[in-house]
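Let's do one together. I've listed all components of the complex below, 418 residues spread over four lines.
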Amino acid sequence: MDRMKTPTDRPYHHGDLRRAVIETASAMLREDNNWQFTLREVARRAGVSHGAPYKHFPDKESLLAELARQGFEQLQEALAASTARSRSIRKELLAAGTANVRFGVGNPALYRLMFGSGTGSRTAGVHLRERTLPTRGFLVDILRRGQEAGVFKKHALQGQAAACWAQVHGLTLLSIDGLLMAEKVGADPVEAALVHLLEGLELAGPAKR
Amino acid sequence: MDRMKTPTDRPYHHGDLRRAVIETASAMLREDNNWQFTLREVARRAGVSHGAPYKHFPDKESLLAELARQGFEQLQEALAASTARSRSIRKELLAAGTANVRFGVGNPALYRLMFGSGTGSRTAGVHLRERTLPTRGFLVDILRRGQEAGVFKKHALQGQAAACWAQVHGLTLLSIDGLLMAEKVGADPVEAALVHLLEGLELAGPAKR
DNA sequence: ACCTGAACACCGTTCAAGT
DNA sequence: ACCTGAACACCGTTCAAGT
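Okay, and this is what the predicted structure of the assembly comes out as:
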């Protein structure tokens, strides 16, 4: 991964094409919000013939599925890292939600790919549910501790988690689409929505003005 | 729209090709959750040459944009119709949320198209915000009346609306992806999440168990 | 004014041939 | 074992020619 593509380094056999293809594709996804993801273009950028990637991925879908898989890993790491320095359960939920939105806004094409229909339905289709299990589990864990600590209302964890997840997922996608900066809202609408979410969760809400 | 394609009915000039193209495309979107939407296939099904649609739409994107536009119209109608028989503001919000989810689950490819990056960014890109204004306005209206009636907490309407919208949008997309029917949840997770949403909104929550 | 059919550039995928 | 290059089927888009 360190040594870059010098003409002498890749005479005929690339040697690390699988990784190169993934990295190139990932870069294209990062810059191209614009869904013109082409396998031939990936090969072109990687400096190999258009047939070469087929030795490492059975088809285009498989490559995209792999990118999505890595995306879920990254998201999971981002979520885990976000709550590291949170000093209250309430702030953990706030941090995790913000991290999810930030991840989506920072990688819009990837986030869409992860939850898109193309890769979502077929290859990763059966797996999409288990791919998102860590995220669910992460939320459930926060909520359970919140309930045990007497901070959150004691409702069914799965339902509570589903509500939180939907809220965060929706905020992320609306943010990606640039649909949240409304007319003249002073505060960050994402944080406002998350605070609102907490308000429904918490037993004792902060002084309602 | 009534008379169907009989061989004698379309000797050379179709006569109503624009509408036929839209209807065919719409049908394909309805059956094909699977994003293989092809302009040539549309022409094929409509029984015209693959070049014909270009007399009515400058390109593929434009056709998709038109489908998305109609989709937002339908969604708006579905939302308006959903609250017609609601006998409380609380139930209005519940009905609207359920209607949105139902619309998305009923027309997954269309819903994705409406909020997708392809048509969403370019052609309809500048318009996506205004396309969704009616939905926002619809929510704001419910919330304002709720606040005035003393049912909902008095927070900034835009923030409250954003939170509701994100919740509903997220629930819709997660439902489309089949990600909400968790392990062994008895109740409908969508309704559970919406009830949870209301709990954060309402001034006096129902007896918290 | 509206539609057809050939034409062009480009893709995904396959495969015999090269190294 | 891994990569190349021709080949095939298919798309989006254009355009001269038909009606």
